[in-house]
């Protein structure tokens, strides 16, 4: 892991330019899962009209980015056939592409990336860090933002006794390697952000170490960091609460991530997170006066 240059202050995101500087308010990315089996909200938003209604509510609540996912990446999840993922996500993308907010597609399949980009998405959020054959070709000539995430193994097996000698250093080294691969493919750094992958091949201790040391990853890469901890098992492990009762813990984690430099917060509870971040940001800016 090596030190980087001054962190980015702007993220090129399709039709948008997102302010992601240290003094900007962290952006809230709302999760829109059109899946029957996601760990938290599986089956809630499969119907197109319900998915659109939920997106409209997120917009009313102040969301900055809407992240559409058609395949569950919960621990133990089985891979989803390509055509089924396209069937789930494409109608939602077409329905929301002109909603006035950046649209992100959460996928690791190059074919889905290509179709989603053609349909007008502004970001590709890949849990596999664009390692699949054809992924770089699918995204390199677009203007979309790209989120590079760390995952140890794959969803089916990632929580089977994950081990690191130094989780911060190993996650940073992986992200630096993938950033270089994308840069070598001709992708501008201004399109990139990183995600340490909370819960993706990490124990509770690993997750807490990463959260505590987010600035180490930001300083190492010089890129905006996306943090996604909403309702995950790490929140349940700390609070003892089931998935449906993890909002307070998730908001606390989001505020801690913001305090440590995260520029994008990926959450289920948009309105409550927007309010919490607004209060945190107001206090922070008052301190700097």
From TrEMBL:
Keywords: Folate biosynthesis, Magnesium, Metal-binding, Transferase. Coiled coil: none annotated. It comes from Noviherbaspirillum galbum. Pfam families: Pterin_bind (PF00809). Pathway: Cofactor biosynthesis; tetrahydrofolate biosynthesis; 7,8-dihydrofolate from 2-amino-4-hydroxy-6-hydroxymethyl-7,8-dihydropteridine diphosphate and 4-aminobenzoate: step 1/2. The lineage of its organism: Bacteria, Pseudomonadati, Pseudomonadota, Betaproteobacteria, Burkholderiales. Belongs to the DHPS family. PANTHER family: FOLATE SYNTHESIS PROTEINS, FOLIC ACID SYNTHESIS PROTEIN FOL1. Its cofactor is Mg(2+). The gene is folP. Catalyzes the condensation of para-aminobenzoate (pABA) with 6-hydroxymethyl-7,8-dihydropterin diphosphate (DHPt-PP) to form 7,8-dihydropteroate (H2Pte), the immediate precursor of folate derivatives. It comes from the Bacteria. Residues 26-278 form the Pterin-binding domain. Its EC number is 2.5.1.15. It is an enzyme of class 2 (transferase). Transmembrane segments: none annotated. CDD domains: DHPS. GO terms for cellular component: cytosol. This is Dihydropteroate synthase. One of its GO terms (molecular function) is dihydropteroate synthase activity. GO terms for biological process: folic acid biosynthetic process; tetrahydrofolate biosynthetic process. It catalyses: (7,8-dihydropterin-6-yl)methyl diphosphate + 4-aminobenzoate = 7,8-dihydropteroate + diphosphate.
């Amino acid at each position: 892991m090596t030190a980087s240059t001054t962190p980015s202050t702007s993220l090129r995101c399709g039709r948008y330019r997102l302010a992601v500087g240290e003094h900007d308010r962290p952006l809230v990315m709302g999760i829109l899962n059109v899946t029957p089996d996601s760990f938290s909200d599986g089956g809630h938003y499969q119907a197109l009209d319900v998915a659109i209604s939920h997106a409209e509510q997120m917009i009313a609540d102040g969301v900055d980015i809407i992240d559409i996912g058609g395949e569950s990446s919960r621990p133990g999840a089985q891979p989803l056939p390509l055509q089924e993922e396209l069937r789930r996500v494409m109608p939602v993308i077409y329905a929301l592409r002109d909603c006035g907010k950046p649209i992100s597609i959460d996928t690791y399949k190059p074919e889905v990336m290509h179709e989603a980009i053609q349909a007008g998405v502004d970001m590709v959020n890949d849990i596999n860090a664009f390692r699949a054959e054809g992924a770089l070709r699918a995204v390199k000539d677009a203007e979309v933002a790209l989120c590079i995430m760390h995952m140890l193994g794959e969803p089916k097996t990632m929580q089977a006794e994950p081990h690191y000698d130094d989780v911060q250093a190993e996650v940073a080294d992986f992200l630096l390697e993938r950033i270089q691969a994308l840069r070598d493919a001709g992708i501008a750094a201004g399109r990139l952000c990183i995600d340490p992958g909370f819960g993706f091949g990490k124990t509770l201790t690993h997750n807490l170490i990463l959260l505590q040391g987010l600035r180490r990853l930001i300083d190492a890469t010089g890129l905006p960091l996306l943090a996604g901890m909403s309702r995950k098992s790490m929140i349940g492990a700390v609070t003892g609460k089931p998935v449906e009762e993890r909002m307070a813990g998730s908001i606390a984690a989001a505020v801690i991530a913001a305090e440590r430099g995260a520029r994008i917060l990926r959450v289920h509870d948009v309105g409550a997170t927007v309010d919490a971040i607004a209060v945190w940001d107001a206090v922070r800016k008052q301190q700097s006066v």
